[in-house]
Amino acid sequence: MKKLSFLHIDWKSILWPDTSFLEIIVRGSVMYIAIFTLLRIVLKRQAGTLGITDLLLITLIADASQNAMAGEYKSVPDGIVLVSTIIFWNYAFDWLSYKFAWFQRMIEAPPLQLIRHGKFLRRNMRQELITEEDLMGQLRAQGVDDVTKVKAAYIEGDGRISVIENQVKHHQNEKRKGT
After folding, report:
1. Any idea which fold 112-177 has?
2. Is the pTM of this model over 0.85?
3. Which of 3, 68, 76, 106 has its CA 20 to 30 A from that of 152?
4. 40-86, pLDDT tens digit by residue?
5. What is the C-alpha radius of gyration for the chain, rounded to an integer number of angstroms?
6. Where in the chain is the domain with CATH 3.30.240.20?
């Protein structure tokens, strides 16, 4: 009869680090900053959605960078230190952008106007690779069916579209209500 297999687990290889924690921290830090920079410079903001291609890209980046970050680590502590390092950098960037306006301007894209007084700003749309159809879809999602009703629309740093409608609409509604 075969002995129970869980008794033959190599607990040392699971619980004892294979790589020095300092090396894992350095690898994780370099890869986080490099990937963050590449994504910030190369990728454009998306119009408020996370598509299947975005998910695929992130998955491929994670897979491609795995060995560069940690080599061939196998122990649980190695993985925990690497994940903790990446979470640390994410928190640190958020904290720095909260504390220092110059850092926030450096890592977060400012709002970009896409519509002004009912007219598309095609140069800005082209810069963000947003088609008229995409923008109209975002307007419809916010209850606006006609671009001429829009005083201004912006793509925010996180990719959401914010819309400011003309005041005429509100005055017409007030007149209908009798105020």
Report:
1. CRO Repressor (3.30.240)
2. no
3. 106
4. 765 555 555 555 556 666 776 777 677 666 666 666 567 667 767 77
5. 25
6. 112-177
